[in-house]
Design a protein that fits this description.
The chain is an alpha/beta fold. The protein is built from 19 helices and 16 strands. Strand 14 and strand 15 form a beta hairpin. The longest helix is centred in the middle third of the chain and has 20 residues. 42% of the residues are buried. This is SUMO-activating enzyme subunit. One of its GO terms (cellular component) is cytoplasm. Keywords: ATP-binding, Metal-binding, Nucleotide-binding, Nucleus, Transferase, Ubl conjugation pathway, Zinc.
Length: 610
């Protein structure tokens, strides 16, 4: 029997779960069916957005607003009609459907997720169910694949994780709530006007926002039968660049791109200002469902920006546009906007035909444009502004999604999956994708997986304690549940009792009414400094103790002093550990199982021939 036949025999009865059908998920599903996997289940709550089409290759324009899990399953079914692939268009956090018993139905779980909370949740369920998990991720040109096996390797939460740096497109375009959302949008705006345009860079209101239930009404408000905006008849600068919305609203209307319109207007900075910060905002306001539980944005025009119209912010503002350490006033932002648009227009016109400007945080004109636009948008959405220095720091850290990186990551997931399903757990590797080849010419670098950390409060066999500083006079039990337990520790269904009294203060049972108790502060519930809370998440089969310490400096915030039992500096973050491995590999240093260990090398080479 040949290698291919042996592989097909091995895989035909193995049932695998794929969580996530986005960038990595599309590549992974394609790889699985072409490798010979026959029984695949896919879970993803997301629907397809226009911005997904440039890198999630299983989706087409006609699939926009449809379930990713459903469309991806149907697409790969066409590649291999004999594959039994099923899907759930649902949240992996749905405990009624996706509990421990559900995970036990699979031989292997593969994560293709883009957020830490969901990764934590799947990690815990796989540990509780005793099912191997392959975790994967990418950030620009780097990526990583790791295998998680209970008792043999580190789990996903054994090391601390860096803060995520990607943001949902509908949040960026419609409902920003943080200044970083405005900063991302301002960089997209630069590309729309002066740089290379990607589909993800659309700055117009997103009519396909899942929260917008009045799409038809909004579309009718945007365009009348003559192709002008309904806000101001004959106004040629009030168009919106949401191509899907425009096509559906008026088949005879061709809406120009932001670039084309700006060029035809001679890059008139005041017209561009009013289009971005007034007309588009007025259109957003017609999407009424977005503002039922949010403060609506406030449109501004260039003409009504005065000295008194200043954005919010905790720092002292200045009209000195050369001061990079203080937040500019709204009028100063408008001035910088006009100056930077004029400067960038001049530079663009001097380029050879076909060439465009590229954004660089060290390009003064480009950076000042982004800073001004970000603060103007922040003012509109009642978000405190920031200084140019702060915005420069944020803007320089935004990481794009790269389709080829996702493809490489997905390929390595399947390689490790075959090792696990063959029972060759001694051959599993943690694989890293590097930005540049090392002296050996390697872009892919691998190493032995770390063993479990005995201090990890998730996978350790010992019961762990975490230490949390809160203001007992301010923080309510509901705030503690939402911000600390769910927000920080990713606990989904917590039951919490006070260790000394045995009194339950938070319950996961929907029939229990703890609303009055949860709205009281710790102090009002007679929970004092040093109290020990026993936390039990039945859904994740997770238990730990939370020790509370009173801190007057905290308001409704908190500080986790220790969440893994590790001493300060004892354990590197995942980013630090990965970078250390990359550095060692790039310098040509072998890992413990490489170099002169010919036996281990030969053993790994035999994997393809078994």
């Amino acid at each position: 029997m040949g290698i291919r036949n042996r592989l097909e025999t091995l895989l035909e009865d193995k049932r695998v779960l794929v969580v996530g059908a986005g960038g990595i998920g599309c590549e992974l599903l394609k790889n699985l069916v072409l490798t010979g996997f026959k029984k695949i289940h896919v879970v993803d709550l997301d629907t397809i957005d226009v911005s997904n089409l440039n890198r999630q290759f299983l989706f087409r324009r006609e699939h926009v607003n449809k379930s990713k899990a459903e469309v991806a399953s149907a697409a790969v079914q066409k590649l291999q009609p004999n594959v039994n692939i099923t899907f759930d268009h649902d949240s992996i956090f749905n405990g009624d459907k996706f509990g421990i018993s559900f995970f036990k139905e699979f031989n292997l779980v593969m994560n293709a997720l883009d957020n830490r909370s969901a990764r934590n949740h799947v990690n815990r369920l796989c540990l509780s169910a005793g099912v191997p998990l392959i975790e994967s991720g990418s950030a620009g040109y780097i990526g990583q694949v790791s295998v998680i096996i209970k008792g043999q390797t580190q789990c996903y939460e054994c090391t601390s994780k860096p803060a995520p740096k990607t943001y949902p497109g509908c949040t960026i375009r419609n409902t920003p709530s943080e200044h970083i959302h405005c900063t991302v949008w301002s960089k997209h705006c630069f590309n729309q006007l002066f740089g290379e345009v990607a589909i993800d860079d659309d700055v117009s209101p997103d009519l396909n926002d899942p929260e917008n239930k009045t799409a038809e009404e909004a579309t009718e408000t945007m365009m009348n039968g003559n192709g002008h905006t309904a806000m101001e008849e004959g106004n040629t600068n009030g168009f919106h660049t949401n191509g899907v919305a425009a096509e559906e609203s008026n088949k005879n209307t061709v809406v120009p791109s932001t670039r084309k319109w700006a060029e035809e207007s001679g890059y008139n900075a005041k017209l561009i200002f009013d289009k971005l910060f007034h007309d588009d905002i007025e259109y957003l306001l017609t999407m009424k469902d977005l503002w039922k539980s949010r403060k609506p944005p406030t449109p501004i025009t260039f003409a009504n920006v005065t000295d008194e119209a200043q954005g919010g912010g905790s720092t002292e503002m200045t009209d000195d546009v050369n001061d990079i350490m203080k937040q500019w006033t709204l009028k100063a932002c408008a001035r910088v906007f006009v100056e930077s648009v004029d400067a960038l227009k001049t530079r663009k016109s001097g380029l050879p035909e076909g060439q465009l400007l590229s954004w660089d945080k060290d390009d003064d004109d480009a950076m000042r444009f982004v800073a001004a636009v970000a603060n103007l948008r922040a003012h509109i959405f009642s978000i405190p502004g920031k200084s140019l220095f702060e915005i420069k720091s944020m803007a320089g850290n935004i990481i794009p999604a790269i389709a080829t990186t996702n493809a490489i990551v997905a390929g390595m997931v399947v390689v490790e999956a075959i090792k696990v399903l063959r029972g060759r757990k001694d051959l599993i590797r943690t694989v890293y994708i590097n930005r540049q080849p090392n002296p050996r010419g390697q872009l892919l670098m691998d190493d032995d997986p770390y063993p479990p950390r005995k201090e990890c409060f998730v996978c350790s066999s010992d019961k762990r304690e975490v230490f949390v500083k809160v203001n007992l006079n301010v923080m309510t039990l509901k705030m503690f549940k939402d911000k600390v337990l769910t927000g920080h520790f990713s606990v989904q269904s917590p039951d919490v009792l006070v260790a000394t009294t045995g009194n339950i203060i938070i319950s996961s049972d929907p029939d229990d009414d703890f609303s009055e108790l949860e709205n009281r502060t710790f102090q009002e519930n007679n929970i004092a400094d040093g109290a020990v809370l026993e936390v039990d998440d039945y859904l994740q089969d997770l238990k730990f103790s939370a020790v509370l310490f009173h801190d007057e400096n905290q308001k409704d915030s908190f500080v986790v002093e220790q969440d893994t039992g590790a001493k300060p500096g004892e354990s590197p973050t995942e980013e630090e550990a990965s970078e250390a491995k990359r550095k060692r590999k790039s310098e040509g240093e072998p890992s413990a199982s490489e170099g002169h260990d010919e036996e281990s090398q030969a053993k790994r080479m035999r994997i393809a021939a078994e």
